[in-house]
Amino acid sequence: MAFGLRRDELIKWKQEVSQGKIAFLTHYWIDSRFPDCDTVTKVGCSDIDKLVEWGNKYGLDPRWIHRDEHFPHYDLMGQIQKKILTAEKQWNQLERFID
């Protein structure tokens, strides 16, 4: 279950992903499969090759891409989430969601 994001943030993320940009969206998240994680960052891009290339910078396996028909994305959690958000200077998302 996702919560803690605004509709305009979701719309902006979807627009940027659709335009072939690397886009970040962090929100609170509860999933019993991941009891130690309470946030997730979706890093999306409709250009799969570009998304794979971006993920390679951080050692992300292309098999981890959620190949959604409209909004393909990586789901980042835990320490890798914090590391990548910091490297990508996503300060607002770090301040809002990551302790």
Which keywords apply here?
99 residues, alpha+beta, four-stranded antiparallel β-sheet, 4 strands, globular
Explain what you see.
There is one protein chain. By secondary structure, this protein is of the alpha+beta class. It has one domain. It has four helices and four strands. The protein has helices at 7-18, 48-56, 78-87, 91-97, and strands at 2-3, 23-29, 39-44, 73-76. Strands 1-2-3-4 form a four-stranded antiparallel β-sheet. It comes from Sediminibacillus albus. This is YneQ.
Q: Give helix % range.
A: 25-40%
Proportion in β-strands: 15-25%
Order of helices and strands: EHEEHEHH
Task: From the alpha carbons, calculate the radius of gyration and give it in angstroms.
Answer: 13 Å
The rough form would be described as: globular
Organism: Sediminibacillus albus
Protein name: YneQ
Question: Concise description?
Answer:
This protein has about 100 residues and is α+β, with helices and mostly antiparallel strands. The protein is about 40% helix and about 20% strand. It is globular.
Topology:
Layout: E1 2-3, H1 7-18, E2 23-29, E3 39-44, H2 48-56, E4 73-76, H3 78-87, H4 91-97
Antiparallel strand pairs: 1-2, 2-3, 3-4
